[in-house]
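Narrative of accomplishments. A recurring question from our advisory board has been how the design workflow behaves on a single, concrete structure rather than in aggregate. To address it, we present the structure tokens for one chain from the evaluation set, followed by the sequence designed for it. No filtering or post-editing was applied between the two.
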């Protein structure tokens, strides 16, 4: 099946003669992951095409009509193209939850399943218990987030510790340490 899909991809040319080339495929986490190399493409605006014409001039590589009429040229050079500096953002990774992937699948399949679903009674009970555990974690995480939004780092750490979530408390402490260091 997979070989048929690859053969169809190789046999059918891309609309603009731009094709991604397969770099590698490997089994990762119980799933097939394939990596491709995609060649660089250039977006050329078409007259009357509003979708492409509405794109920012920095992306299209052309100047705005006001800049073109002021300079007398139809396109801006890379030196004159004004590109704003990237916005500095802090990336904080929070737990997606306390359930493993297998447990999350069990909850999705059996926690609120109708009577005719293919779930054993033990699976239903375990899924309901895990769902309650996940809901309790999400409630504590919501409280922690609200306290962080109110600039109450100590209260956020206390809420995480009261819930018994040491990893969340550690993440909150790290977040508060970086935000106070950035403020100084």
């Amino acid at each position: 099946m997979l070989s048929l899909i690859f053969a169809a991809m190789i046999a059918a040319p891309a609309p603009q003669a731009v094709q991604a080339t397969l770099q590698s495929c490997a089994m990762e986490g119980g799933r097939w992951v394939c990596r491709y190399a995609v060649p660089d493409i250039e977006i050329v605006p078409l007259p009357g095409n509003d979708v492409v014409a509405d794109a920012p001039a920095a992306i299209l590589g052309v100047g705005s009509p006001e800049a073109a009429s002021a300079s007398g040229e139809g396109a801006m050079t890379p030196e004159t193209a004004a590109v704003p500096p990237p916005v500095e953002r802090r990336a904080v990774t929070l737990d997606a939850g306390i359930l493993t992937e297998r447990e999350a699948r069990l909850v999705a399949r059996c926690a609120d399943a109708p009577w005719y679903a293919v779930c054993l009674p033990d699976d239903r009970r375990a899924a309901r218990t895990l769902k309650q555990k996940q809901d309790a974690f999400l409630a504590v995480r919501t409280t922690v987030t609200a306290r962080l939004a109110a600039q109450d780092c100590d209260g956020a750490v206390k809420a995480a510790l009261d819930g018994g979530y040491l990893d969340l408390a550690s993440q909150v402490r790290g977040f508060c340490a970086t935000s106070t260091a950035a403020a100084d």
